[in-house]
Amino acid sequence: QVQLVESGGGLVQAGGSLRLSCVASGVTLSKYAMGWFRQAPGKEREFVGAVSGSGLITDYADSVKGRFTVSRDNSKNTVYLQMNSLKPEDTAVYYCAASRTIHRMVSRYDYWGQGTQVTVSS
User: Fold this and answer.
1) Which residues contact 24 (CB under 8 A, 6 or more apart)?
2) pLDDT per position as a tens digit, 26-62
3) 25 and 3 in contact (C-beta within 8 Å)?
4) How far is CA 91 from the centre of its chain?
């Protein structure tokens, strides 16, 4: 059974940083591209960033490019989302997800974590 568990969320002031982690079990993580998504209240879940199974290819939403970095450590079955220069509009529940290939579309991801709340105060 595949499980993805996010951690690292919390409350931070604007301009601050957080690092989210996503630990996978029941799956060989290197076989999957991993994506990070977020969902704010009343809004649809949106793509944040993704990394290929090898870690060589990354993709980011324009809204986070240059501020967020997705990385992975396949030896630890863990994916990270480093978030710098956080803004109040980054406030959302953040989810990690696994897909066979790197995508931006929610529907292309097979497995999802339960989410972790990130709140950025102004």
Assistant:
1) 2, 3, 4, 32, 77, 78, 79, 98
2) 988 899 999 999 999 999 999 999 999 999 999 999 9
3) yes
4) 13
Region at 120 (left for phi over 0; alpha for psi -120 to 50; beta for the rest): beta
> Which has the closest alpha carbon to 28: 6, 2, 49?
2
Site of tokens 């997800």: 97
Q: What is the residue whose two structure tokens read 């989302």?
A: 81
Q: What is the structure's pLDDT at 48?
A: 98
Q: Which two tokens stand for residue 88?
A: 């109040």
Strands (E), the chain: 3-7, 10-13, 18-25, 33-39, 46-51, 58-60, 68-73, 78-83, 92-99, 111-112, 116-121
